[in-house]
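Posting for a labmate who doesn't have an account.
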Amino acid sequence: MLYSEKVNGLFSSQLREWDLARVNYLQFERVKTRMLDLSGFEILVQFNPERIRSSAANVDAKSIGARPCFLCSKNRPSQQRGLTFKRSLTVLVNPFPIFPRHLSIPSELHTDQRILQNFGSMLSLAEAIPDYVIFYNGPQCGASAPDHLHFQAGNRGFLPIETDFSGGKFTTLISGKPGVKIWNWSGYLRGIVTLSGSESEKLISVFNHFFKKFSAFQPDKPEPMLNILAYYNPDGWVVHLIPRKLHRPTQFFEEGIDQILLSPASVDLGGVIITPREEDFNKINASDIADIFNQVCINENEIAGFFNE
């Protein structure tokens, strides 16, 4: 049996057996959404109150140290079952979905959220479950458990960035070496570089080069601030790298009507803005989103330099 078929079986059985997951996925079918147009591309805004746990999570060292790790097997709900992936990761149904099908994929070891030595595992996951986008939130840009290595996954076709990349309107090929291509994005309000290719070792090599250059740009960080989205097509992988310069925008810390409780992570930067409060869902507009992207993302003109020799 293909691994993707096992994941489908896990999903079906968990919705039968686990009350919390079943109720939340039924509620997700009625989640409110609306579309905004930003300079020729679309952003989907989602009102999802169950995501308040993640959006407003305290991720400072003191808060992390004071709570049990919810990704460790001993602390998971008794009804939550998982599938082992390559003896190092466990695929779980996420009971608080952003996607119609949403997975959490933690390491079996309680080890810090770091991507450099685990990028290959991300590619392997994408190949094993090609109906999903795999995403990684860095420890200072969206991960609500920065103390425990994990990925997440959501079903393909949900994030606007997939369609925008295949359409080619916002991307320019900046390198076309055998086995891997590098694309730069422009006019997208977020600095993004996309890697595509069919040879995992070459993709890993290019990623490592980028990571080294970006690390020098942010030497005071545990790792450079980065969100990653990866998926697998018949002709190989597509990997969107979204470098960051800020965890949360100023709107997050405002008070009263000026506050927008938005803590951008991979899904938001992939084009689906998650608002856990209805007042934010109703009032956020294209100008707010453009400003938030500008605050948290590296400028698109700076990114190409991370791939120069």
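Reply:
Got it, the structure tokens are right above this. The longest helix spans residues 200-217.
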